[in-house]
Amino acid sequence: MLQDKTTGSATELATLPPAEPRNPGMALDLSWVSAARANRSAIERRAATLPGRRSVKKDFQAAWLCRAISCIDLTTLAGDDTEGRVRRLCAKAKQPVRADILDALGMQGLTTGAVCVYHDMVPAAHEALEGTGIPVAAVSTGFPAGLSPFHLRLAEISESVEAGAEEIDIVISRRHVLTGNWQALYDEMKAFRAACGDAHVKAILATGELGTLQNVAKASLVCMMAGADFIKTSTGKESVNATLPVSLVMIRAIREYHDRTGFRVGYKPAGGISKAKDALVYLSLIKEELGDRWLRPDLFRFGASSLLGDIERQLEHHVTGAYSASWRHAAS
Q1: Can you give the residue ranges of every domain in the chain?
Q2: Which of 63, 155, 178, 198 is least crowded, fewest Cβ atoms below 10 Å from its Cβ?
Q3: CB–CB of 236/204 below 8 Å?
Q4: Which amino acids are annotated catalytic?
């Protein structure tokens, strides 16, 4: 059975620690937002050290990869999505790795963190996952551009929650960040949080469209002040999605928010993370900057559609000594 001090045993992996209190938000503190800074050269130097400096091998690597699977939001956001495809994706979420491989690893019961779909696919996903404990996440608020009328964005959230979504991934209005209208961003995020009710809300910053790392830091703080349960890098549809420098800025904003308020906010990198080795780098970044408590699916997720396939191949190689073809590990 896989076990190390970082990831825990199979039983510990499947058991979440006590639920964190939700981030209630706070009044907008413009002095805190204005003081936020991002030293680009220092951030890029720190990010550049991560891939080569942290390495885990053999059983330890397999354990970390199982942890990565438990934190994946298995995603399909294509224009040709069908209910059948979504049901196959949900079956994959329930059994993400071949049973004999999980048996050899002692990781029976391993699932992904959630399944993420468009609003119209929420009922099919909810039905397929009923009783599993795997939440349905819905992208909302005019995803990916976020430019539909405001009342329709609120209605979309409400309808997704009513259809069974337990998590809502919203997109912010990038113009509020680019023009420095922090009050407008705060009010928008607060309204989205209220519309979600008991469903957890992930605020997608679309960092590739925010211009500067300083804007990323400020937008992160404002969304957390307005009650975001998670902050997320990207929709996956931008030309630049999750990167290590952006992640470092957002993670340090989360750490600062926790230090000041006592509330933990989750983090979700999304877009462009497709290799097992990349997942290991992100996990090590989270461990070093935020600590082990954030290495759980209630506080960390990968937004990914193809990452699982490469992790499966690495785990099969760990057990059998041979790599399988990537086409044998399709998600849906």
Answers
A1: 26-329
A2: 198
A3: no
A4: 169, 232, 268
Superfamily for domain range 26-329: Aldolase class I (3.20.20.70)
117 membership: H or E segment, kind and range: strand 114-117
pLDDT tens-digit readout, 30-57: 999 999 999 999 999 999 988 876 578 8
pLDDT in tens, 186-237: 999 999 999 999 999 999 999 999 999 999 999 999 999 999 999 999 999 9
232 has which bridge partners?
204, 268
Rounded to 10 degrees, what is the CA torsion of 51, 267, 143, 47?
Answer: -30
Query: What CA–CA distances, in Å, run from 55 to 8, 51, 58, 275, 292?
Result: 18, 8, 10, 15, 17
Is 0.70 surpassed by the pTM of this model? Answer: yes
pLDDT digits (tens, 9 = 90+) for 139-186: 999 999 999 999 999 999 999 999 999 999 999 999 999 999 999 999
Which residue is associated with the tokens 């975001």? 228
Gap between the Cα atoms of 202 and 170, Å rounded: 6
Strand order in the sheet with 136-139: 266-268, 230-232, 200-204, 167-171, 136-139, 114-117, 72-75, 302-304
Q: What is the largest CA-CA distance in the chain?
A: 57
- Residue 230 pairs with which residues in a beta bridge? 202, 266
H-helix or E-strand containing 260? helix 244-261
Rounded Cα distance, 157 and 197, in Å? 10
CA distance linking residue 131 with residue 116, whole number of Å = 17
DSSP state of 19: P
How many Cβ atoms are within 10 Å of 71's Cβ, its own excluded?
25
